[in-house]
Amino acid sequence: MKKIVIAIDGHSSSGKSTMAKDLAREIGYTYIDTGAMYRAVTLYCLRQGWFEGDTLREEALRAVIDDLEITFHFNPSTGRADTYLNGEDVEQEIRTMAVAEKVSLVAALGFVRKALVAKQQAMGKEKGVVMDGRDIGTVVFPDAELKLFVTASQEVRARRRMEELRAKGTPVSFEEVLENVRKRDYLDSTRTEGPLRQADDALVLDNSDMTLAEQKAWVLEQYHRVVDV
Ligand code: DC
Fold first, then answer.
1. Tell me: the pLDDT tens digits for 116-158?
2. Is 147 in the pocket of ligand 1 (CB under 6 A)?
3. Predicted local distance difference test score (pLDDT) of residue 1
4. Residue identifier of the C-alpha nearest atom 13 of ligand 1
5. Distance in Å, CA 207 to ligand 1 centroid
6. DSSP secondary structure string, 27-79?
7. 107 CB within 6 A, ligand 1
8. How many other CB atoms sit within 10 Å of the CB of residue 157?
9. Which of 76, 81, 131, 163 has the fewest CB neighbours in a 10 Å radius?
């Protein structure tokens, strides 16, 4: 069967990573979480002490960005790929609030995007990948054979995020999370470098009122529509 590139973009907390991971497992493709790559660079900067409040020592990062090694390796105990930074498993650390608070500053830098986009293009060169992010169908793989844009209403995404946080033991109010979702949407879609934008040829999935099973069936159908020809 022919191998393709599947680009999945969309809003934060839209469930796109879950969808991308499930799809990759189902069809035997490699899943690449590009958000994890921006998070890994952010973690590196935090460890180096390059942040002072919201100000980053950009020149220090610029000098090393091409030498940072970010890779993914399968973890048999979770059944998923973990993110590695210079050979160290950082999967847990990149998901902390400390990283989440700073990552959008790092993701807005043109030289960071340029370096990570080049790595992502190299990872997808042989095809057979499901890549999720914000600019995959527009910048990283504008020729991807299948492009999906996943979204849900801000209220639905805020509720999902609130439930996730509460399950982890973080008490948050719905209003607080909704405000954060709105803020992230705004930052993601208004930055000048690689903003979140729907590719003209992307298929849009609004999963506000869909179950996970319905979503899974829909995405598999789109995949087969492209490869079974
Ligand atoms: O999907 P996520 O929450 O792990 O993404 C982390 C951050 O990285 C978020 O601020 C959006 C940004 N990002 C990006 O700018 N481009 C991508 N391709 C993926 C993520």
1. 999 999 999 999 999 999 999 999 999 999 999 999 999 999 9
2. no
3. 82
4. 35
5. 20
6. HTPEEEEHHHHHHHHHHHHHHHT-EETTEE-HHHHHHHGGG--EEEEEETTTT
7. yes
8. 25
9. 76
